[in-house]
Specification:
There is one protein chain. The protein is an alpha+beta fold. The chain has a single domain, classed as Pnp Oxidase, Chain A (Roll). The chain is 26% helix and 30% strand. It has a 6-stranded antiparallel barrel with strand order 1-2-3-6-5-4. A hairpin with a 2-residue loop joins strand 2 and strand 3 (56-60). The longest helix has 16 residues, at 2-17. The chain is globular, with a radius of gyration of 15 Å.
Length: 140
């Protein structure tokens, strides 16, 4: 867990030093999500892949295709009011889960851009169905 925190902290620092740009994610737009723990209410910050939409931003709770949603997803379900950093801007948002056609449209665009991780045939199947189907939270 410490390795992930250290890696995330490096991404957060580079994001802030470079107006939202991170070299290792040069093709994938990122945002920083400020959210509160579902149980602790402690503020946390996570760098996330994002897709800008006409009405807000989409983030993807796929956790690289893992069988569980990331902690930040559960935190947003419990506490949907959050803040994001996009470039140099700080924006108050309210999260909600994208559903059905909307989720499909957002995910298809992410795949079209080549900005998603797809499971290989050798990897075990996802217990909740296709991880590429979205489990995405949309920030508005």
């Amino acid at each position: 867990m410490t390795e992930v925190k250290d890696w995330n902290q490096g991404i957060i620092e580079e994001f802030r030093e470079n107006g939202g740009r991170v070299a290792s994610f040069r093709d994938q737009p990122l945002l920083l999500l400020h959210h509160r723990g579902a149980k602790t209410r402690i503020e946390r910050v996570n760098p996330l892949a994002q897709q800008e939409l006409e009405e807000g931003y989409a983030v993807f709770a796929s956790k690289g295709g893992a069988p569980k949603n990331p902690d930040w997803y559960h935190n947003l379900i419990a506490n949907p009011d959050a803040t994001i950093e996009v470039g140099d801007a700080i924006i108050e948002v309210r999260a909600r889960v994208a559903e059905s056609e909307e989720r499909e449209r957002i995910w298809e665009e992410q795949k079209r851009r080549g900005l998603c991780r797809l499971r290989t045939q050798d990897e075990p199947s996802h217990p909740r169905g296709d991880p590429r189907a979205g489990y995405s939270a949309r920030l508005m």
